């Protein structure tokens, strides 16, 4: 039997609010997925007016997630991951990448939106080494105490903490750096932290931010310096916090980068 979230019964479709757009479903729409509704597509279309190549931005993010997990699994020896703000299943989900390099790799997906569990269970929990947890990452203690997290993650060994495409959804007064540190405090030396986030790169970025704030209620595009500061206290690995296509690319990347290529930045650090 598939493990249930937090001991609750199966997530009912009634839990999925179709009267308002959700971040997970809007992102799915941006990526060209099918797990979204008209209310979400309206937002995706509005963002596309602000940033015509927004789908490319989403795929740059998915691609760097894949490269990051590959690096962690293949080169950093990480075989257990907590994927915070995991999103709906799409191509190359974290466990698919990690288990390609280590079939025993364990992945816990955490997302606040019950649709991720409802739609994601079949794919994201496709073997006993993966689980989906419906929880709010702003409550690290609860997330870290969750039975699925305790079952799959051995906190005496290095962990890959993934905060990919999510920290711009946290307001300043929610203390995103303290939340990052709460997860990193729970994992031992040798653990790694991967972050990607929207960056305040100029007027186009601010237009997307305004649309997100208006329709989704969240959206804080931080400066490169602010995003780099998330890694304070850890050893930031080469090439640092950079535009996503520049993070350990598989081939040459033409420059100058486009606005879409620069819209999100990311990096990986190691806890010493
Ligand atoms: N990490 C994936 C990626 O980068 O491709 C998905 C990113 S998607 C833009 C952000 C996800 O974070 C959504 O699925 C949303 O439901 C989830 N999310 C937003 N706020 C959250 C919170 N407080 N706790 C957990 N998940 C959250």
TrEMBL record:
EC number(s) on record? 2.1.1.-
InterPro entries per UniProt: SAM-dependent_MTases_sf, SAM_dep_MeTrfase_SAV2177_type
GO terms for biological process, alphabetical: methylation
Q: What keywords tag this UniProt record?
A: Methyltransferase, Transferase
- GO MF annotations, alphabetized: methyltransferase activity
| Protein's UniProt keywords contain Transferase | yes
Q: What domain of life does the UniProt record list for this protein's source?
A: Bacteria
- The top EC class is transferase
A Pfam short name: Methyltransf_19
Protein name, UniProt field:
SAM-dependent methyltransferase
* Organism name: Streptomyces millisiae
